[in-house]
Amino acid sequence: MLDYAGEMQQLHVIDRAALFHLVSETIHPLIDSNGHVGRLLLNLELMKEGYPPINIKFSDVSKYYDCFNHYRANDYDASKMTELVSVYETNELRKALFVPKLYHQLSLLSVYITALLGIALQLFLSLLNAR
Predict the structure, then answer these.
(1) pLDDT, tens digit, 9 for 90 and up, residues 85-98
(2) Inter-residue contact 125 to 82 (CB < 8 Å)
(3) In this structure, what is the dihedral angle of CA atoms 25, 12, 46, 81, given to the nearest 10 degrees?
(4) CA-to-CA distance for 58 and 65, rounded, in angstroms?
(5) Which are the catalytic amino acids?
(6) Which of 38, 54, 109, 117 would bridge 88 by S-S if both were Cys, CB 3.0 to 4.6 A apart?
(7) What gap in Å lies between CA 110 and CA 42, rounded to an integer?
């Protein structure tokens, strides 16, 4: 097992968060709510490095549990959990990039609409003055 202060810090944050989550859930340190606390700690690891938190969907719960089974059955191989966390993190990052792009597009649209309204008002006023 890798030590947290040393070798684990050399891992990419997604690898580290996935492995930390698998280890903490495997030792099951609490009487209750291990999963909730474990997922909070997983997100803490991500957020410490500037990544957005993830929320594992109920529809993926079987994939999530398969990651633990794979970890235990394959000599503590964290690759399945790393893959799952990576997919979720990629989706979160895409959302984070999409919102500013959408905001920019809406801002441009607002400028165009304002310009068109200005032209329409000028035309209307010129028609009124022509009468």
Answers:
(1) 999 999 999 888 77
(2) no
(3) -40
(4) 11
(5) 28
(6) 54
(7) 40
